[in-house]
Amino acid sequence: MRNPFKRDPDKKKISTPDEQMTLTEHLAELRSRIIRSLLAVILGIILLLAFYDQVLRWMWQPYRDLCAQKPNLQCDLYFLGPLEGFTTRLSIATYGGIIIALPVILWQIWQFVVPALHAKEKRYAIPFVLSSVFLFLLGGAVAYWTLTPALDFLIGWSGADVKAAFQISKYVSLFGLMVAAFGITFEFPVLLVFLQLAGVVTPQTLQKHWRYATVIIFVIAAVITPSGDPYSMMALAIPMTLFYIIAIIIGRILQKRKLRAEASAA
Asked: Structure pTM?
């Protein structure tokens, strides 16, 4: 059986977009990338299972901070079924395992895309991976920071005479959705820069339609925010708007460099 991690010495190396891979080679390459990504996720899951109690306390901290501000809240988390504790542990380990494996996953994605890129575009591999990981972690940090006011807002809507008793699986689910929504959305500037590098859009086009883009960003933030509170929505929409502007600036810089390189080569 062929080892998916061992590169075939007889396999022709793809160095330019003009050297096409066959469908079978594409599928074999995709399979090896998926296997490596899954192994990284499994290792992350094992690590999270080993430190489950510490991770759960860290996830619980935003609710405990709210309880410290409002002594009338009961800060315990409950489970209602005999399997809920086990499934919650697996959920936390899976979410955390994917986040830990994110650098490996992004690198495998980039390596799969590389044969379709030119040599000048391939040099952006490390910046692409590092910026993607940083922005995802930044989005997760913003989600964590906004979770306390989001919970306060949601509890306030239940009524003055209603006491909160959170089910652990529901709390973990909300936490995971918040981190995922913010982390994935914060990849927005990486996508815009990549589209500009690929020539799909230009910085001039993005700048021309910035008003429409701002409205769309706020609408998307309102729709995808899991908690639905205004604090989280603004914490998501404002950075996305800033990222849009930063992506335009980066696109203009890259465009000027490209024009200089073409002028010097002519």
From this structure: 0.76
